[in-house]
Specification:
Helix content of chain A: 25-40%
Largest sheet of chain B: 7 strands, mixed
Strand content of chain B: 15-25%
Distance between the termini of chain A: 25 Å
Radius of gyration of chain B: 21 Å
Number of helices of chain A: 13
Order of helices and strands of chain A: HHEHEHEHHEHEHEHHEEHHH
Number of helices of chain B: 12
Oligomer: heterodimer
Shape of chain B: globular
Structural class of chain A: alpha/beta
Largest interface: A-B, 47 and 44 residues
Radius of gyration of chain A: 19 Å
């Protein structure tokens, strides 16, 4: 199902203005795209993080839909509980409406501390879409590394020094780990390609079981770029193949959007150097000393990209 | 109803079956496991309509309960020991959201060293989390407290989560005579569940669990404290109402031959039964002794404890847990209750039974003797090898 801007301009405001997210933050952009993709009413669970604290500073709330935040690591379990009550009350005839269930978590809440709850909830088959707002570090506590932080990025817990070039490890490939659960739907998306993102969100919400979306959500504060460039940066993530757009639907992998066009040779695959130069968190890598790190990053991107192309041809 | 023989865990599962909560979240942990196993059978055989969710951990089990209860469901779960400790973070959230979740706790020691037997360390570790805490002595009280717990937690003036505790193995696994109520009687007593501001009310979207900064956090905590205060009379009223349908009188604190007693020992859980036997034996020898069983630990009934113990010559508080670096956790509470008493008894603390160590009749007699001769320290250890 395709979305049009004209149609979207009439949709209800589920996340209202007045939240306290930073200028240029992409989390609200992603969340609004996901929320608009649900044709049915939604109930939302949120993990602790930037998005949660910024949208619900008591006694205010930016949420126009039922919303629950419980702890850092348990949004999948919280929404699973909501869904369980929904099933019980529906069976007893106390609820007749169809409702979608949605959970948001940052990369810390998803890759690290909340991974167990997410894996468990998917294994149990709760019907919900989990959206990882992936800004590649613990931004709510002031830019610390997570399992999603890229190799060579500088954070306060993996600072670049004279001996260490920022983060030593490559990020965990969480989307593929989630796909290994053999769930009905999983995808990677980026807010710059809103139609691709929304179509994926709709598929996830309507797939009838657990669904997962990993969305690159650039963070001007943590990544050190001009807040006016958020959407440009997210586009760059896709164009450099740092963040390929793809989906896994009923056992089948497919590239989408710009990633599909790059794979088909219709669009240029840009070098990771463009990505590195665009953000202050990688600034130190531009010293000659660390050029092998950039080569490693490029080699890893190429390797993962080739693997993905093979998977999507299967 | 004809009496039946069940163990403590089965009695709880039986009560749950009669109540048929909307959602039960489960994770197996000894010695609670029989509850969720039994209930899984009821679900498998279509005896209940519950949505039964097997979580991947106790942390998620409690998180599921929070989501389910906020959504507007009647919710139950069970845990013990490390499982309760693993829930610790989210226990605070359940009470802060004022969710009447009912949890059965099979009291068991905490690691380390790892130990699966009974003591109260798990429940005592959760004492400040904003949960009402009821302790049962035997299988009958396991059943009765479970039925009553729903009515207490869901009361409009309370709306706090509740844990009903029984001693691991000693009660959870002991087969005892149990008098149950007709299922319809239980259903009528507990009544239909009326959720307050449920998440699934789409017309009135509610934000649960917002960020509460310094300007409101303190007030939020204060409100939980106020709800706790209101809980005490509600527990008493529910116990009175329950007596009408069951004929069994429960109270938040129960004295045994205390009225004319000079020396009293106070305990929670199964030890209360052993104590009554010891009192009977010593009374036979002409000693003026009594015992006290505490059923309600949170909110702590300071007034009732004072009323029960004021004017006694000696009081021993038995703690089946230890607040390392201080005393047993019940002791300071009882001592606080007695501080304003005009006629304050000599008071001593006895830490006992950790990791399932048996408490013996002769040892309890020894405690009475030490009270009589004032031959004790402030904190004493019963049955531990030096």
């Amino acid at each position: 199902m395709s979305f049009t801007l004209k149609e979207l301009s009439h949709s209800e405001d589920r996340l209202t203005e007045g939240h306290r997210l930073c200028a240029g933050c992409s989390e609200s952009i992603v969340a609004r795209q996901v929320l608009m993709a649900s044709k049915k009413p939604v109930v939302v669970a949120n993990a602790t993080g930037c998005f949660e604290v910024s949208t619900t500073i008591y006694p205010f709330t930016s949420w126009n839909v039922p919303w629950i935040h419980s702890a850092f690591e348990n949004a999948p379990a919280s929404i699973g509980g909501v869904e369980a009550t929904y099933l019980a009350l529906k069976r007893k005839g106390k609820i007749t409406e169809d409702i979608n269930f949605l959970a948001f978590g940052g990369d810390g809440a998803t890759y690290d501390i909340g991974f167990q709850a997410l894996s468990g909830a998917i294994e149990r088959g709760h019907r919900f879409l989990y959206v990882c707002l992936n800004n590649e570090a613990y931004m709510n506590t002031g830019i610390q590394r997570s399992g999603a932080t890229g190799r060579g990025a500088q954070t306060t817990t993996c600072p670049a020094g004279t001996c260490v070039p920022g983060k030593k490890e490559f990020p965990k490939d969480l989307t593929r780990i989630i796909i290994a659960h053999d769930l009905p739907y999983a995808a990677q998306a980026s807010p710059h390609n809103w139609r691709d993102l929304m179509e994926k969100a709709e598929k996830g919400l309507e797939c009838g079981g657990p669904a997962f979306m990993n969305v690159v959500t650039p963070c001007p504060r943590g990544w050190r770029f001009d807040p006016a460039l958020t959407i440009e940066i997210s586009r760059l993530a896709v164009e450099t193949c740092i963040w390929p757009l793809y989906e896994f639907e009923k056992g089948k992998w497919s590239l989408t959007g710009e990633s599909k066009r790059i794979a088909e040779g219709k669009k240029e695959k840009r070098p990771v150097m463009d990505w590195i130069k665009s953000q202050g968190r990688f600034g130190h890598l531009l010293k000659d000393k660390w050029s092998p790190v950039i080569e490693e990053i490029q080699a890893n991107v190429d390797k993962k990209w080739e693997e993905l192309i093979k998977l999507s041809q299967m | 109803m004809e009496p039946i023989a069940l163990n403590g865990d089965m009695a709880i599962a039986h009560a749950w079956r009669q109540i048929d909560p909307d959602v039960v979240a489960s994770y197996p942990i000894t010695p609670q496991t029989i509850i969720v196993e039994n209930y899984a059978e009821f679900v498998a055989n279509g005896e209940v309509e519950t949505e039964y969710v097997c979580a991947e951990s106790e942390h998620s089990a409690m998180s599921l309960c929070i989501g389910a209860s906020a959504a507007g469901g009647r919710v139950a779960t069970a845990t013990a020991s490390a499982g309760l400790a693993f829930m610790w973070e989210v226990l605070w959230i359940a009470s802060a959201m004022r969710l009447p979740i009912c949890m059965s706790v099979a009291n068991r020691a905490l690691s380390g060293p790892i130990n699966i037997q009974c003591d109260h360390s798990d429940a005592m570790g959760a004492r400040d989390t904003g949960w009402i805490q009821l302790f049962g002595e035997n299988v009958q009280e396991a059943y009765d407290n479970t039925v009553m717990s729903f009515k207490i937690a869901e009361h409009s003036g309370v709306r706090l989560p509740i844990m009903t505790c029984i001693d691991g193995f000693i009660v959870t696994h002991a087969l005892e005579r149990l008098e149950t109520l007709e299922t319809q009687v239980v259903k009528d007593f507990v009544g239909p569940y009326q959720a307050v501001r449920p998440l699934l009310d789409l017309k009135n979207p509610t934000t649960y669990g917002p960020f509460s900064q310094t300007d409101y956090y303190f007030e939020h905590k204060y409100q939980i404290m106020e709800a706790m205060k209101r809980a005490k009379p509600v527990v008493k009223q529910v116990q009175k109402d329950y007596a009408k349908i069951s004929g069994r009188e429960h109270s938040i604190i129960e004295g045994y031959k205390t009225e004319d007693a000079d020396y009293v020992i106070m305990a929670m859980g199964s030890t209360a039964g052993t104590l009554r036997h010891v009192v009977d034996e010593l009374r036979h020898e002409g000693k003026k002794v009594g015992s006290v069983k505490l059923r309600l630990f949170r909110p702590f009934p300071f007034d009732e404890v004072k009323e029960m113990l004021e004017g006694k010559k000696g009081v021993a508080v038995m703690d089946r847990a230890i607040s390392t670096g201080s005393s047993g956790p019940m002791f300071p509470e009882v001592r606080t209750a007695l501080y304003d008493a005009v006629d304050r008894p000599d008071i001593a603390n006895y830490v006992y039974g950790l990791g399932g160590r048996d408490v013996k009749i002769d040892e309890l007699k020894g405690v009475y003797k030490q009270l009589m001769t004032k031959d004790h320290d402030m904190v004493n250890y019963l049955g531990v090898r030096p």
